[in-house]
Amino acid sequence: LQGKAFSSLLNRTMKKTALIVAGGSGTRMGNQLPKQFIEISGKPLLMHTLSLFHAYDPQTDIVLVLPAIHLDFWHHQCRKYRFTLPHLITEGGATRFHSVKNGLDLIQSGDIVFIHDGVRPLVSHDTLGRCLDTASQKGNAIPAIPVSESVRWSEGETNYPVDRTRLVLIQTPQTFLLRVIKNAYQQEYLPEFTDDASVLEKTGEPIHLVEGNRENIKITWPEDLEVARLFLR
Amino acid sequence: LQGKAFSSLLNRTMKKTALIVAGGSGTRMGNQLPKQFIEISGKPLLMHTLSLFHAYDPQTDIVLVLPAIHLDFWHHQCRKYRFTLPHLITEGGATRFHSVKNGLDLIQSGDIVFIHDGVRPLVSHDTLGRCLDTASQKGNAIPAIPVSESVRWSEGETNYPVDRTRLVLIQTPQTFLLRVIKNAYQQEYLPEFTDDASVLEKTGEPIHLVEGNRENIKITWPEDLEVARLFLR
């Protein structure tokens, strides 16, 4: 075994944790039930998301961050759907930053952490492989896809064109060496921390983009649920 | 009838033309057949697109711009699928600008022109209504939707975050008063003319954004076809 094949084998032996953040309130869905709990193809969306990391590598530890008010409901759902995949659970915080920090505090050891949106059940094994390879070599890997449509900057009454060829849409799992991201989350919270890449970037680390997959949508709007149902089949 | 209701009635009586541009070569689809000709839900994609403008208002004239090499194939397809919706056809040019200009040259009279991608079969009647209302009052209307994902600017090895709340994704139909857009297309071609809004903007006119609809995707990648199939049902 040489080069890439050896590197891939090595990466498979790394200790991995998937940190799944499921904090949304679901207000954009026009639905009282937060979107991660909506049943789709036979089970709640969030169960699909947890299962995909297990399917990628059954040795992956799973940590789930949930709003405190949803803990009981989730336990009830796990019984109802006979969902037996082992996972640690912790409470979410006031912001995404605080939720991820709570999750990282639960991870005592390991090499790699995938920080992933609970409402992205469609990340591909290829994307996970690219995240793993680059994060293990360079410390971080952020999946991204090009923009297919024309883009404009819009501010009040004015708007102007933007060169879409320079823009990428960011997905998750944002993937890190565990020690690197734990260190980054020691910082004080800043409102500009909109995702994990922005937290790490503040420490001066360069961010490494890898190719995501187009199906890996964030379930945000009602029509996204229809699309997810299609691709989960 | 007063105000908005009166305005809507007035708009319905305006003479409208849909100018459908179907120039793509389909190389991104991994398919020899250009994507506008792929059969989906019983007929070629492009027939769905033409039909939706007829469904919105049967009085709408339809002008189709096709690459010269596809004219025979299209006529054959129309016979095969018994597609009898009346439409004028003209040849595409070297760029989208030249294709649209050819199409505009065919439109002798009217009030409003919808310039629409042949591979967007999912624009809603609500979006068409917003385009019509704003274009008739302000001269132009460009449908756009907010960006759901984090965005980065990526250039070579470096990349940095962009405030996605200021960005919008541009859709079609880009909608205009006929005399306004005919006048704009008298300009010499510039490579920066990536869409009709950019052509009009060069004359000094402000661009007016209206709300699009999320299903109104541009069929670009193979997985887009699956999504379109879902929403066309």
Protein model, in words:
Chain A is built from eight helices and twelve strands. By secondary structure, the first copy, chain A, is of the alpha/beta class. Chains A and B meet through strand 8, strand 9, strand 10, helix 7 and helix 8 of A and strand 8, strand 9, strand 10, helix 7 and helix 8 of B. Strand 10 (167-170) of chain A pairs antiparallel with strand 8 (150-155) of chain B.
List keywords for this structure.
homodimer; alpha/beta; two-stranded antiparallel sheet; 35% helix; globular
Oligomer type: homodimer
Low-confidence segments of chain A, ≥5 residues, pLDDT <50?
26-31
Shape of chain A: globular
Fraction of residues in H or I helices of chain A: 25-40%
SSE string of chain A, helix = H, strand = E? Answer: HEEEHEHEHEHEEEEEHHEH
* Beta content of chain A: 15-25%
Question: What is the number of helices of chain A?
Answer: 8
Please state the structural category of chain A. alpha/beta
Greatest interface: A-B, 41 and 41 residues
Strand count, sense and barrel status of the largest sheet of chain A are: 8 strands, mixed
Radius of gyration of chain A from the CA trace?
18 Å
- Average residue-wise pLDDT of chain A: 91
